[in-house]
Amino acid sequence: MLEHIAFIGLGNMGGPMAANLAKAGFKVSAFDLSPAAQERARAAGCSIAKTPAEAAIGADAVISMLPNGDICESLYISNGLLAALRPGTLVIDSSTVSPATSRRLATAAGKHQLRFIDAPVSGGVAAAAAGKLAFMCGGDADTVEAARPLLAAMGANIFRAGDHGSGSVAKICNNMLLAVHMIGTAEALALGVQNGMDPKVLSEIMLKSSGCNWSLEKYNPFPGVMEGVPASRGYQGGFMVNLMLKDLGLALEAAHSTGASTPMGSLANSLYALFRQQEADGGNLDFSGIQKLFYKPSAG
């Protein structure tokens, strides 16, 4: 039975996820290097550990939400967290990493008789806070099913993508597409505004037409069109450009390893790199800030 959960990584996504587990009645022992993140988790009902190993003492499951694959492998393998867990412990890595990294983690977990799934998420910070994330799981069916009570406390949609690494494949495909349609949405809105249209009116038209997409419907990149999204607060918060570039890099790496053709993904990567280079602190802005590459109000 899953009762005691160790949660490692309390950033923009991990923090709300851990909070929702505590809200659902799980005993959550959490770790993050940020004192501010620790305090938010404590206020949400989590206990705070001094180290990942301390968080995992007696844990029935360990969930990680970390910035990249190197940190994941360091945590679990180099620093020995997998070796410190009890046999049978469930390990869920929700970080966005390469499929190869997920498979290496699964192999290492298996050597210690641990159950492992890669389970990256989609939906953004708002969905994380609302407990409505989508989980893309890679691993055997029984382990994914065992993880379902935990995932259901944090998300509304749980998919088994396939064997180990498949969750990571699904995530990088999804985020490559997200980058492409965000750029297309920003470009189309800029074209309309520069030809005299009100961006709200144009958005309404496209939402009811064949150009409708998630970026336009849930995360409009044009300032003043939609409340509660990063575009309405100077592109602060949300999903940083640095992270989008990391994910696009993973997608291009996967494409290269298999000979897949991804010209739109390559172009999206180049445009986000250009935006980061041209915009002050561009890497730390939300990825919808790509709108500024096509239209800046001060420039008319």
How are the SSEs ordered, and which strands pair?
Layout: E1 4-8, H1 14-23, E2 27-31, H2 35-43, E3 47-48, H3 52-55, E4 61-64, H4 69-78, H5 81-84, E5 90-93, H6 99-111, E6 115-118, E7 121-122, H7 124-130, E8 133-138, H8 141-154, E9 155-162, H9 166-194, H10 199-207, H11 214-218, H12 241-258, H13 263-278, H14 291-294
Parallel strand pairs: 1-2, 1-4, 2-3, 4-5, 5-6, 8-9
Antiparallel strand pairs: 7-8
Task: Please give a handful of descriptors for the protein shown.
13% strand; 3-stranded mixed beta sheet; 300 residues; alpha/beta
Major beta sheet summary: 6 strands, parallel
Q: What coarse outline follows from CA principal-axis ratios?
A: globular
Biggest sheet strand line-up: 3-2-1-4-5-6
Number of strands: 9
Order of helices and strands: EHEHEHEHHEHEEHEHEHHHHHH
Proportion in β-strands: 5-15%
What's the CATH first level of the largest domain?
Alpha Beta
What gap, in angstroms, lies between the N and C termini? Answer: 60 Å
Class by SSE composition: alpha/beta
User: What is the CATH H-level superfamily of the largest domain?
Assistant: NAD(P)-binding Rossmann-like Domain
Question: Which stretches of 5+ consecutive residues score pLDDT under 50?
Answer: none
- Helicity, as a percent range: 40-55%
What is the overall number of helices? Answer: 14
| CATH architecture heading of the largest domain | 3-Layer(aba) Sandwich
